[in-house]
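agent> fetching stored inputs for the adenosine-5'-triphosphate docking request
agent> found them:
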Amino acid sequence: MSAPALHLQGVSKHYGPVRAVDRVSLEVRPGELYALLGLNGAGKTTLMRVVLGMVRPSAGTVTVLGRGRGDRSALAAVGYLVESAAAYPELTVRENLELARRLRRLRSPGAVQDAVELFGLTEHADRRARVLSQGNLQRLALARAMLHRPSLLVLDEPVNGLDPAGVVEVRALLGRLAREHGTAVLLSSHLLGEVARVATRVGVLHRGALIDEFGTAALPDRVHRRLELSTRDDARAVRVLAAAGLPARRAAGTVVLEGARATDRPEDVAAALVHGGVPPTALAVVREDLEAHFLRLVGAEHPGERSGDR
Ligand code: ATP
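agent> prediction call returned; pasting tokens
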């Protein structure tokens, strides 16, 4: 297996009593899209700033592209977009990218034009940054972060401010960079629904600590499922189901059953009800909403569930 592009071991960052990052260990391999998922204040930005050498960790080791913190040479092969998508307002899109190219000491003058095209900025290339929409500013910032085709990309909330078409575009672009160029991507988000579409792996950051880590391919198996049904007499239905060894409860005008026996074989539940003289008038397997799943992971309040997502 290839060496990790990023390796964190026991990384902490404390601001006085605040544990912004608390003993985080993780690895991002080439071609992997790793999403740090967390609520506001979970420590995502701080962790990214530690990775980029902008903030000194209180403890732990950070290895970027095989090199330790003291060796800043690895940072030349890192692209990043952390916090605001700042650009020089009086320079055009092309001039902003040209400046970035020179600062990066990139020889290929074609790099700017490639980035303009790749990020759909052709019609804005000669407009000043100050007149760009938020979405196009974000595109410019991403283009700048990727200008030198970095081996590791660190992106804080990369789809912030983009319209739905822009979100889809950036998702596809990141996927391509990872798959075709083997770029390792560390990105952050507060939306599980979003990262489920772009990331290959998710680390859940909560109060500075990495409390869970999973591959997005495993998500459908992790979300809770339940069977919801209605009858003409729900109290009786619950008694009938209990007698059939199917524990059920009443909730918000429906009868709810949890567990694989009910969700994998809803027909058995229907048959038990028909047999007991309370046939179902409606019956559906409901999947937990991804954001509800995320909130459950971090122990926050349940905002309610709906079916359909994934
Ligand atoms: P958001 O999604 O809101 O950007 P985040 O997950 O990126 O949140 P951080 O900005 O990393 O979270 O903040 C983590 C915690 O560390 C917060 O409690 C924050 O107030 C605190 N913190 C961050 N930077 C500093 C600082 N320079 N001084 C003191 N506390 C800080």
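agent> quick read of the result: The pocket of adenosine-5'-triphosphate is lined by residues 15, 18, 20, 38, 40-46, 190 (CB under 6 Å).
agent> awaiting further instructions
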